[in-house]
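During the reporting period the student researcher (J.K.) took over the structure-prediction task from the postdoctoral fellow and processed the backlog of single-chain submissions. One of the processed entries is reproduced below for the supervisory committee.
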Amino acid sequence: MYTVFCLNFQIANKLAQTFQRSTLFTWIIIIILVVLPITAIYLLEIPNNFSKLFQDLKHFFLTLSLKGKTGDATIDKVIKAAGYSYDQTQDIFYTNKNAWQRNNGYCRLYDEATVPLGIAIHCEPIYFEYYGRRWLIEFWKGQYGLATGCEIGVYSTERADVSIPGVFVGPFYYPVKNTDTLLLSFSLSKNGNPLFTREARQWWLTGFKLGEFSEPEELTMTITITFEDIIMLNAFTQGLKDAGYKDSEICIKKNTINLKFNKPNTPQPIAENITANYTLQKNNKLLCEKYINLAGVYTCFPDRANNIKRNAPELYNEIFNIGKPKEIFDIYEKIRFYLY
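J.K. obtained the following structure tokens:
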């Protein structure tokens, strides 16, 4: 029954977004699509089940009130400080739109730093030009320490290449402004089995599932991007082809493009090598196994986290090092004086 609640709420939310109405309009739709039909079912088919109806409604609206949160104020504060929110339904973490990482831009050096920091991922940067700016839309998927995850990032720049002798030569991109964010979505599967999905108008769409261990090659992202106009779509499509994608791998409908990212077509970070990946993945697998063992039978994330905190404080700290660790973005502090 709760699943029906969630499904109908998603329909209601989509309708509200479509008509761009007020919050009041959203709740009117929720009442029509969710509360009234479910109440009628209970009254007609299960006449005396008012207690269960009350509990289901309470659970449903509690979930709405905790959107993006775990329900534990202390843990929620730590997660927010890390730049993330929590999806209770899918048990995943995702990036906030105005996360602190938005201030640090992106360049190839960030990808090069992943392996030394315990991250085993596939990267797929797609470069193109649109209205006088150079753009980068990049995909990532793989093992981020204690979590399996994936990302789509949207960046652009009007500046010339950065030249730091012996360190880096190339473009430095900045996250797009809110007015330039795109409607992004992905579904991540492992060996054909769905893990989670995400959709939002964003500059950086992410998802990370704690305790799930994966090799990057086991993961497939099904990606959908809606562009502002056909010119931007065509420019990105050419960028895909320049990266090695074939026409048969690209599906286009109006201003929306759909593709799968499983095996990268572009060169991977030079720091990636078989020995380093084997070592870091061995460690990541042990972390995930320890997390699963200590999470035990707890279905509620705060209960899992607090049990780990009591029994393995060092692992507790790893939990909140979600996605790309801060050390990657420390690169910005080292090169930012060369950017102006």
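The committee noted the following: DSSP finds ten helices and 14 strands in the chain.
J.K. will present the remaining backlog at the next meeting.
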